Amino acid sequence: MRRRQFPLDDNCLPSYRGVQWSRSKVDTFHPQGRPIGNNVVSPPPTLEAARSTHEVDILAYSDEFDKHVAGAIKTRETAVHILPQTIQFPTLPAPLLVALSASGANPPPTIKYLLPALHSARLIKTEYEIELIRQANAISSRAHEVIMRVLGKDVKEVGGRVSTGSKEVTAVMPGQWRIEKEAEAEAIFVASCRREGAVHQAYMPIVASAQHAATLHYCCNDRAFAWGPVNSERQDLATQPANGHAHAHNGTQNGHGNEPTLAPQVLLLDAGCEWRNYASDITRTTPVGNGGKFTPEARAIYELVLKMQEEAIDSLKPGLHWDKVQLQCHLTLIDGFLELGLFKGERADIINSEISSAFFPHGVGHSLGLDVHDVPSASKPEAVTASSSLLALGPNVTIPIESADHPSFYRYLRLRLPLATGMVLTVEPGIYFSPHLLAPVRSSPYIDHELLAKYESVGGVRIEDVLWITETGCQNFTMTGKSVEWIEKLTSGQA
């Protein structure tokens, strides 16, 4: 992941180097501006300017780094820990490696401990990190609300439509922007974040309309919204044009001249900016078309996903194993599908069949920090072996024994640990109607297949917030509303 190349002291200068000798002693080395390069890239700050922003013991230029470190190691006779010299991490300069070897350091530099220690430390956030994550999520929360309000503005206004009769597109001002395709939603979201000073997105936004929302990591973001009715027989949704607006509408009109009707569908927006290298990660699923209201099927699925999420959030506290949160989401889905009539049969049989994994195929959330998935090697050790009472995931790491009963529920979990105070994580359950995932269960006796066909056009629904685990429970950093009433008020133009 790209975040592995960022230093841990908020200094992002290219060619910057640093040494931490102890908790309180840090030496930093900045690149020196070169006249020949200053007209190509922005010059680095002078040492005088850097001293005003960094509290360090020694501040010098980068070309002094190798000699300084080698000499200090020889004087201190201390152990040296370095990152693995692989493609994932910045390679130590050859002169420094030679100098380290010549210094006679005892023991010699080792790669064994530093990376695991860094990854483990990243699971628990400091107060400084918490404030950066909080700010990233505040900006992203407002950007999600902007998308809903622009969709609502489109419902109320008829004017400002981009011409569909020719290849010429009339320029429109930002205040006149409309959202009729995925790319427009992404552009407005990113612009909203940048307007508040968040230059980068924490990950590639997922902007999925209609049945594209069934794809978990859909990142095309280049299709126009569906026009006309959406159903499981529609074959054109995957080929909606990337450029222009798809107004092939099957003869359906919306009462405004010859303009077609925007089909009832959902827009799943999974997007979050970063703030000073720290991530946010928010998902909202909103109605498009239908006057800014969910269809009955989409509303039923949305409310079930919201129930899954709210129950999960209410349960969060230190000591709770993440596997139990995952299991609860599956049980809530099963109970909801039984109530809707999508599942039939005995509850215990449905649980043991693990058929809910076809509709909820991913983990309920993950750790978040410098990386949006922060950090897999520490939050989910690789090996899983069975024992008499517990399943071991490595030294001092265990998971509940009942997790062995339904392996598909936990297959894609990115976090398999008990929660601890100071963790920051997402809670993002979802329900999807993916043709690929449904294919193996098309003959299942536990599914009402005739009723399922009526729900497949929903595509998918996911709701995601960022939570901070506190001593007594959790705190939600995501500020965007998520009740059906709140969302529909915005997307219908009533607020």
Summarize the structure.
Belongs to the peptidase M24B family. The chain has 14 helices and 16 strands. The chain is α+β, with helices and mostly antiparallel strands.
Main attributes of the structure:
495 residues; alpha+beta; 2 domains; three-stranded antiparallel sheet; 12% strand; metal ion binding
Structure write-up:
- There is one protein chain.
- The chain has helices spanning 47-51, 65-76, 94-102, 114-122, 127-156, 182-195, 296-315, 322-340, 347-353, 376-379, 407-410, 435-438, 449-455, 484-491, and strands at residues 17-20, 26-30, 58-61, 206-209, 265-271, 274-275, 278-279, 282-288, 385-386, 391-392, 398-399, 424-427, 430-432, 460-462, 465-469, 474-476.
- The chain is α+β, with helices and mostly antiparallel strands.
- A 3-stranded mixed beta sheet has the order 1-2-3. A 3-stranded antiparallel beta sheet has the order 4-5-8.
- Strand 9 (385-386) and strand 10 form a beta hairpin.
- Helix 2 packs parallel to helix 3, helix 5 (127-156) crosses helix 6 (182-195) and helix 7 packs antiparallel against helix 8 (322-340).
- It is globular and about 75 Å long.
